[in-house]
Amino acid sequence: MAAITITRNIALATSTPPTFSRPSVAYLTSGQQVAAGQPRFETIAGRMGLWVEERTTNEVANPSFEIDLTGWRARFNSGTLSRLSAGGFVGSSFMRWVAADTSDFRGPLTSAYFTVNPNETITVSAWVKGSGKGTLAILDATGQVVGGDGGGWLSSLGALDIPSAWTRWALTWTNNTGLVKYVYIHISQWVTPSPATIDVDGVQFERKGYATTYVDTSRAAETLTIPTAGVLNPQQGTIELSLQMLNLHNWNDILTGALNSGRFDFFTDASGAVHWDFGLSNSGPISASGVLSVGPWYVVALVWSAPSLTVYVNGSQVATNNSYDPSVGLPTNFGLNTGWDGDADCNIDFLRISSRARTASEIAAVASAYLNNGTPPVDADTTYYLGFDGAITLGGGVRFLPPA
Q1: What is the homologous superfamily of the domain 57-214 according to CATH?
Q2: What is the pLDDT of residues 73-112, one digit of tens each?
Q3: Concatenated DSSP letters for 148-164?
Q4: Maximum distance among all Cα pairs of the chain, rounded to whole angstroms
Q5: SS3 call for 400
Q6: Which of these, 312, 310, 291, 288, lies nearest to 301 by C-alpha position?
Q7: pTM of this prediction?
Q8: For residues 238 and 48, is the Cβ–Cβ distance under 8 A?
Q9: Residue 56 per-residue DSSP state
């Protein structure tokens, strides 16, 4: 391959670091609390990355039983409900229900109901362990006084073996009844061969179509803001990042920034398609469905070279068009989950910004190396590099200067 000459790149001793924000506590998937303002790092599928998650509210009044069992009861007053002060998944305490017999539909139940409007989708989740068989259910409380035992199940996970170690159960339900529904959360014994024991902790009620990580009350969106002065070349450039999706939903705004005209917005939708606007809204390339899925690590590359915009995933081109016009300007700030809704859900392991359009072969080589436990190089064309192996580390220090 012929040598590529880049002009007006200079090396500086340092680059301006990014700014992380989350003005609320959050929890790791291990149940460990992380203080407000501190990033979360999770190792999943062999890679440690920065956990970037959307905002949420947990509407359960007493979800982790650290003080008492207020807001919970045993359905039909059957069995024994108690609080244990050590060994919980979230914090120290947890709730234990021990069955009196093998009758179905018995177990812990919320005292207060939740209102679910027509066509609204909710997700309930709980960390459970114990013995016997049971399930997580959404119980119809419509027409009952607070503290009633509820009617039929609107949805359940079906009969499951209650795990011996803390495991998260999650259940999503959409109210397609055409009516306002009032519901309880019920962790129930179900078709068990012997009386069950059910330990419960970290219960969550969210008005979403999926479960996010546990939080006691509300969690703010996690954002990472990258200063763009001297980092982005308006004529051409490349952004590469490793990405693991935690959830797939519409308007999963991962990389965003405001422009003089239009927007910079790299996002996914519920089908696993990727979208990238660098200019007018809804003008950029869109991939086919299923390019991304929940779980695997991917290497995504966004390449602009007027007038083209091209998206690569794991070294393969998945979308391109000619919608880019440099006159739209550059973002004044640019970052992860800094978009309009704060709804990104992903894990990220590295981010590299370059001052030129990397070639398809370069992009494929970086993707292949990363997926085989390598890391991208920081070379003369790298204007910004971030790593996330247990800390947010700034590498490189090479800054782009536009032509004089």
Answers
A1: Galactose-binding domain-like (2.60.120.260)
A2: 999 999 999 999 999 999 999 999 999 999 999 999 999 8
A3: ----SEEEE--SEEPPS
A4: 82
A5: strand
A6: 312
A7: 0.85
A8: no
A9: E
